[in-house]
């Protein structure tokens, strides 16, 4: 009898654990665990991500810096770690080799350490990104997550109160192209290794990864304060969303659509719906090195020409003798 009692207690305990486990999971398309059911600040927060950029009430700023040198050290790895996080594919640098991001290069204070990058995608090439640009959704969006180095870890920075710059995320849109994105090949080739979800299993992949080559050619970006786009939707995230999309081939895109989530189902639409802006300021940073130099040269030449034109009459008024002499020479 007592054995049966223990068995019943064990089964109830097991069911309770499984129930807790399933409750802790989140998903995107199933109404029972989709975005509308996400708990806490996901529902109550006023600075949530993603948002649409429509140019309305957007401040324009210039960042004439060496933006190309956005990372302190070369953001290159000869081998990297890839894992199926249950709702996306994550890529990490080997411990101790994480690139350091120069805050000043993107208008932020201090230094940041690379934590991981991951992706959001859809079932078709016409949608999948989380942020949208004038209502346009791209096929894929990559998030490069960095934490402010003084916090020592992403986990510590992630829950830092009242620090809007604790976690910096660089977001890059991808649009379909006839040719492969060469910089992305090491990642798309490694995706089959993590097709099935296996909690905390990181696969060490030999492959050349260069974060810099994953950035668009034109580095103009939108900046705003938002949140993580999946539970627990922590705020205090500063977003840098590049305006220009980079390329990805159809074949590369297909690799993402073969990945299974932590419920054993293909990840089909792992992007959160747009959130209310709630009057948050957005700044569009115009960042161009060569063009900035050209503009600077143009204005220098332009001002110089106008100076000549404007000062032309004054030189005669100020020196009549010179005028006479000049005039006389012209008549000869
Ligand atoms: Zn993300």
Kindly describe this structure.
The longest helix has 30 residues, at 289-318. The chain is 26% helix and 26% strand. The chain is α/β, with parallel strands linked by helices. It is built from 7 helices and 14 strands. It folds into 2 domains: 22-287, Alpha carbonic anhydrase (Carbonic Anhydrase II, Roll), CATH 3.10.200.10; 291-326. Strands 2, 3, 4, 5, 6, 8, 9, 10, 11, 12, 13 and 14 form a 12-stranded mixed beta sheet that branches. It has a two-stranded parallel sheet with strand order 1-7. Helix 6 (289-318) packs across helix 7. Mean pLDDT is 84; it is low at 7-24 and 315-332. Zinc ion (ZN) binds at residues 118, 120, 143, 229.
CATH superfamily of the largest domain: Alpha carbonic anhydrase
Distance between the termini: 129 Å
Mean pLDDT: 84
Low-pLDDT regions: 7-24, 315-332
Number of helices: 7
Strand content: 25-35%
Number of strands: 14
Highest-level CATH class of the largest domain: Alpha Beta
> Which sequence of SSEs, written as H and E, runs from N to C?
HHEEEEEEEEHEHEEEEHEHH
Helix content: 25-40%
Number of separate structural domains: 2
Overall body shape? globular
Report the radius of gyration as a whole number of Å.
Answer: 27 Å
What small ligands are held by the chains?
zinc ion
Main structural class: alpha/beta
